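Write out this protein's structure.
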Amino acid sequence: MSGRSAKIGLVHRVIDAMNVIGCRPDGWWRDRAGAIERLAAQLDGWAAETGERVTVVLEQPPRRPLDAERLEVAWAPRPGPNSADREIVRRLDDWLAGDEAIVVTSDRDLAERARDLGAEVEPAATFRARLEAL
């Protein structure tokens, strides 16, 4: 456990997009942009239903604008392997300054770094199942 004290405030769910998308082999790789758009729509609904602050982090800017009212969209400044993970770690201290952060990922290195910085971690597959049940 980190040295941060427990906060009473908004839950900020930070989504490692490709981890959540990739946790189920449903053919997403044939239409990566469409998979991101579908995830964004589901996350926007999650934010509306739960009242949580939700940020989805992408490896690069989306190809098309995402139709989401409540969802925050962030991306790495340079695309590449693990770029979204690095962007989450880079921004996490700022996100934790105001909220209780929960990082949704199944990447062991990112999960460890997020916990070290004081965030909670939820496995991508667990969250995706809850997201789809909503």
